[in-house]
Amino acid sequence: MNTDLVIIGAGAAGLFAACEAADAGLHAVLLERRHRPGQKLLMCGNNRCNLSHAGTAEELLRAYGTPVRDFLATAIRALPPSELQRWFQNRLGLRTKLLGKRIYPASEKGDDVLHAFLDHLRDRDFPVIYSAAAEAIQPMEDGFQVVTGNFTLDTRNLLLTIGGFSYPRTGSVGNGERFGKSLGIPFEPARAGLVGLELPSRNPLARIPASTDVQEVIVSAPDLPSSIGNLLVENGVLRGSAVFDLTRMAARQNRDDFRIAIDFFPQESLAQLNRRLQALLVRVGGNLRTAINAIGLPPMLAAALAEDGVETAEQLKDYRPGELRPRPLKEAIVTVGGLARSAFDPETMQCRLLPGLYAAGEVLDIDGPTGGYNLHAAFATAHLAMAHLVSRLSHPSAGLRRRDDRQADNRPLSRKSDPRKSAWGKHFWDGKRPLR
Asked: Mean pLDDT throughout 160-182?
């Protein structure tokens, strides 16, 4: 055997798991198909990296909803948001902060999260191999063989953190389906979750030339729970958390028909809104465009709504933009579908069919709302998988030789002892210039 563990995929779950493996002293390696890691991680939260959502474990689990909630229960309870924040602070030296209900790095920069992961792995001499796409996985008598284009690794254990189908240019190319089929693991069909909705070309909103944001609306659709959040109209597509969360729920029901209703003023009753609108119409001489703008909607949106025939408070509380189409899966924030939950033990994230094979993150059929839930699920499932794997490998019968056994060879454990080798590590987080 070459190693005790191979982690495939250097995204959020893979980087988290690699840090856990490094701290446990495992003989392990992280493989990444692209020439650089964490590309989707950098995109999260508009490049600010929304790490999690504030609340208790039980509050998070309610937000995930069925059928994901029950599968994630052990993982989320083992690593609730408060513990995740402590993990980043104590393990990586990365401070976090709360904006509304969302947890971000204190700098609000996704780059700092990625650098913190990579600093930690570098300081512990943890091997990460880039441009190493896994082409095949073959079960062996006592482990697995991972075949890449340039080399083959034999490993006792394997952790799949290869993501889903969304944003394939970041490295998430949907290999979970291919590996699942080759290994006999059931795979739930992939659908677009948290994705934009394309407006009919005839709708005036489709001609809004620049991004237009409304901070709080309610979006509803037949037989689906209503979704509250922001609405973004841009380039003929409706986006924003209110739309995204609705599309996730629709994907869970295998629905791709979208006839939605938008309440632009959820904080006001119909009677209150009507009084305000009528008073404004009188003030502006009946100009609908000006009145809708004055009542609180952005100018371009107000003009488009007026052009679409919106005249009353009822229409502003129940606007119907026509039949919408979801944007392609490759544009979705998260993939709904993946390796079947039933094939994995929710207490350990280990495959029931192939002991020693684990999965974490979006490669599994798990997903959550916008607001940090999907990153948290990736971290929590990776944490649970590594806790079980470390426990197994630490058992005397496992024959584990920890990386810290290298002390017997008079070799250093990490670069920490020589600060001159830290390019932008702990000195970066302390606000100091690195030593040269």
From this structure: 94
Residue matched to tokens 């944007």 = 327
User: The domain containing residue 253 runs over which residues?
Assistant: 197-327
- Are 125 and 23 found together in one domain? yes
409 pLDDT above the threshold of 50: no
Q: Does residue 389 fall inside a structural domain?
A: yes
Predicted confidence (pLDDT) per residue in 349-377, tens digit: 999 999 999 999 999 999 999 999 999 99
113-118 long-range contacts (CB < 8 A, ≥24 apart) are 113/38, 113/41, 113/49, 113/51, 114/15, 114/37, 114/38, 114/41, 114/42, 115/424, 115/428, 116/88, 116/92, 116/429, 117/15, 117/16, 117/18, 117/19, 117/37, 117/38, 117/92, 118/15, 118/37
In this predicted model, what pLDDT tens digit does every residue of 102-114 receive, in sequence order?
A: 999 999 999 999 9
Please give the model's pTM, rounded to 2 decimal places.
0.90
User: What letters, b where the CB count within 10 A reaches 16 and e where it falls short, cover 171-205?
Assistant: bbbbbbbbbbeebebebbebbbbbbbbbbeeebbb
Per-residue tokens: 236 = 């003929």
| Domain end marker among 327, 354, 371 | 327
Asked if the structure places residue 407 within a domain, the reply is yes
What integer is the mean pLDDT of 139-146?
Answer: 96
Give the distance, in angstroms, between the CA of residue 343 and the centroid of all CA atoms in the same chain: 22
Structural domain includes residue 434: no
Residue located via tokens 């991004």: 211
DSSP, residue by residue, 368-403: --TTTHHHHHHHHHHHHHHHHHHHHHTSGGG----G
Q: Is residue 373 part of a domain?
A: yes
User: What pLDDT score does 2 carry?
Assistant: 87
